[in-house]
């Protein structure tokens, strides 16, 4: 186990084991199989797996986060929300820590869309450190996607509303990672300044 799992202050370490690498590769493979028939909402119908892979990349390359459970959870973060995957399955394959992080970032699909959106704002400050990291990277990826291309069926108003909502969620995630916070602040301010 990498020493970084015990530390918030120093999230970078070189002490990785075969188990750490295995966990991350198995998570990427599991997510690819679960999301295999899903596409993003852009006109090019980008494979959905590009999103969890990109969220994990944001954590390592921009957040300097190398905690194996956090990276595995990023790869798996939409499997329960968007596929038939269960939390029990995640525990069986990836253990209770990874499952718990995914659980923290999974919306309750039984609630209405408005309630889910409000719950993200209300619950963000109470999430664990690792769940906050995954949520920040998820939001950053989706905001960049919105800045790049408007999803099928979305208009400018809906894009703007998503940026305003994301700003409220991100406000509850501060004090977690300076680099991710700064990048989120910049993209949100740039887009809310439009028109
Ligand atoms: N920007 C963008 N988003 C896309 C695209 N394709 C799929 N999505 C997903 O759509 C979700 C945001 O759209 P909403 O209308 O707010 O949510 P909904 O999917 O529940 O209807 C995000 O889900 P999420 O990752 O679970 O995050 P969250 O925003 O629900 O927390 C995002 O990953 C795309 O091409 N561009
Ligand atoms: Mn996501």
Briefly summarize what is shown:
The chain is mostly helical. It has helices spanning 18-34, 50-62, 68-76, 79-82, 87-104, 113-123, 129-148, 156-171, 178-192. Helices cover 63% and strands 0% of the residues.
Can you put this structure into words, describing what you see?
Keywords: Hydrolase, Manganese, Metal-binding. It catalyses: guanosine 3',5'-bis(diphosphate) + H2O = GDP + diphosphate + H(+). By secondary structure, the protein is mainly α. The chain is built from nine helices and no strands. The termini are far apart. The site of guanosine-5',3'-tetraphosphate (G4P) has 12 residues, from helix 7.
Ordered list of secondary-structure elements with their pairings:
Layout lengths: L17 H17 L15 H13 L5 H9 L2 H4 L4 H18 L8 H11 L5 H20 L7 H16 L6 H15 L3
Helix pairs in contact: 1-3, 2-3, 2-7, 3-5, 3-7, 6-8, 7-8, 7-9, 8-9
The structure holds guanosine-5',3'-tetraphosphate and manganese (II) ion.
Radius of gyration: 16 Å
Number of DSSP-assigned strands: 0
User: Total number of helical segments?
Assistant: 9
Helix content: 55-70%
State the separation between the terminal residues, measured CA to CA: 49 Å
Largest sheet: none
Shape: globular
Assembly annotation? single chain
What is the overall pLDDT average? Answer: 94
> Low-confidence stretches at least 5 residues in length (pLDDT < 50)?
1-7
Q: What hetero molecules are in the model?
A: guanosine-5',3'-tetraphosphate, manganese (II) ion
Beta fraction of the residues? under 5%
- Class by helix and strand content? mainly alpha
Name the helix and strand elements from N-terminus to C-terminus, one letter apiece: HHHHHHHHH
């Amino acid at each position: 186990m990498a020493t970084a799992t015990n530390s918030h202050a120093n999230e970078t370490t070189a002490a990785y084991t075969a188990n750490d690498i295995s966990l991350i590769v198995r998570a990427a493979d599991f997510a690819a199989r679960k999301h295999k028939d899903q596409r993003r909402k852009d006109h090019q119908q980008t494979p959905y797996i590009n999103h969890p892979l990109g969220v994990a990349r944001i954590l390592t390359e921009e957040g300097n986060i190398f905690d194996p459970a956090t990276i595995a959870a990023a790869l798996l973060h939409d499997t329960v929300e968007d596929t038939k995957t269960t939390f029990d399955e995640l525990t069986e394959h990836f253990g209770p820590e990874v499952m718990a992080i995914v659980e923290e970032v999974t919306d309750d699909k039984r609630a209405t869309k408005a309630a889910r959106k409000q719950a993200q704002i209300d619950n963000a400050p109470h999430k664990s450190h690792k769940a906050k990291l995954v949520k920040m990277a998820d939001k950053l990826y989706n905001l960049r996607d919105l800045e790049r291309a408007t999803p099928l069926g979305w208009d400018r108003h809906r894009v703007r509303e998503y940026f305003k909502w994301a700003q409220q969620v991100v406000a509850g995630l501060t004090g977690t990672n300076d680099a991710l916070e700064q990048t989120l602040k910049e993209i949100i301010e740039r887009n809310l300044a439009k028109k």
